[in-house]
Amino acid sequence: NAGVTQTPKFQVLKTGQSMTLQCAQDMNHNSMYWYRQDPGMGLRLIYYSASEGTTDKGEVPNGYNVSRLNKREFSLRLESAAPSQTSVYFCASSELGQFVGPLHFGNGTRLTVT
Amino acid sequence: ELKVEQNPLFLSMQEGKNYTIYCNYSTTSDRLYWYRQDPGKSLESLFVLLSNGAVKQEGRLMASLDTKARLSTLHITAAVHDLSATYFCAVDMNSGGGADGLTFGKGTHLIIQP
After folding, report:
1. Residues of B in contact with A93 (CB under 8 A)
2. Tens digits of per-residue pLDDT, A77-86?
């Protein structure tokens, strides 16, 4: 009963380093999302993938890239980390269709960039 | 640009009292979601409201949606300490069942004191 699994749970990077956040879901959902959460800002959408083979920018895409590897997996890459990217990152998935269900969230990755 | 505003952003209340959290949004949508987040944890789906006049209840929480007023409320009845958390509302930007994600409010940090 895993749902949405994110790795790693915690990460500390130095400015300029790169890393990839991994996300996998086992609910056979079509759509997957990456959000970041900052204090007092709620959650903001970085990128999303409506279905396998497609990706689109969200509200705050600058400094990030994504890959929808297959239906299960959606990764987020920081090519050159900056302190402004210190945040908690959540991956989510949902079913696509006329009646859109809630997003199902992973447990988050807490990233600190020094 | 869709904006979602919650108020209050911070609420401290006593056990046994009733209170309402408000969620206003700026564009037409008939899909609204409420989530709960405990400190350091992920987001848990509470309610999915999919039409004008929808009302959902779970225990001491009741959510409603008025699409004409672009307003949703989360009402807490006879609050108990276990309901202390941050509550987010989120709006579907595409009422046609698209998969381009949800726009979140900034959250209401609720503390319930004995």
Report:
1. none
2. 999 999 999 9
CB contact (8 A) between residue A103 and residue B45 = yes
Written as one string, the DSSP assignment of B7-68 is: E-SEEEEETT--EEEEEEESS--S-EEEEEE-TTS-EEEEEEE-STT-EEEETTEEEEEETT
Report the C-alpha gap between B109 and B8 in whole angstroms: 8
Residue B75: name the closest of B108, B31, B106, B103 by CA. Answer: B108
Phi, psi dihedrals of residue A73, rounded to the nearest 5°:
-120, 140
Q: pLDDT of chain B along its 114 residues, tens only?
A: 789 999 999 999 999 999 999 999 998 877 899 999 999 999 999 999 988 889 999 999 999 999 999 999 999 999 999 999 999 999 987 655 556 788 999 999 999 998
Query: Is B100–A48 a contact, with Cβ atoms under 8 angstroms apart?
Result: yes
- B80: DSSP letter: -
Give the helix/strand (H/E) hosting B6: strand B4-7
60-89 in chain A: CB under 8 A from chain B: none
Residue B66, strand partner residues: B71
For the stretch A9-45, pLDDT in tens is 999 999 999 999 999 999 999 999 999 999 888 999 9
Task: Tally Cβ neighbours within 10 Å of residue A41.
Answer: 13
Helix (H, G, I), strand (E, B) or coil at A101: coil
**Nearest beta carbon to residue A100 from set B42, B45, B92:** B92
